[in-house]
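User:
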Amino acid sequence: GRKWKIEHSESNRVIGRYDRNGRAYKVEVKMGGSLIAVKFMRGYGAKKSGYLENLKKDIAALL
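Assistant: Predicted structure:
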């Protein structure tokens, strides 16, 4: 499976990093009520949203 690493966490916010093929992907996940918001961290995104879709599936599988 994918190996996201948590770099920082607070009660309602987590910053995670995923390294693949020499590239780092980094996201911020914020939780509020029944919503979960996921966004690219500046400079760590991708032109395609595939890895965010995979992260969404990973989070949904845990809930």
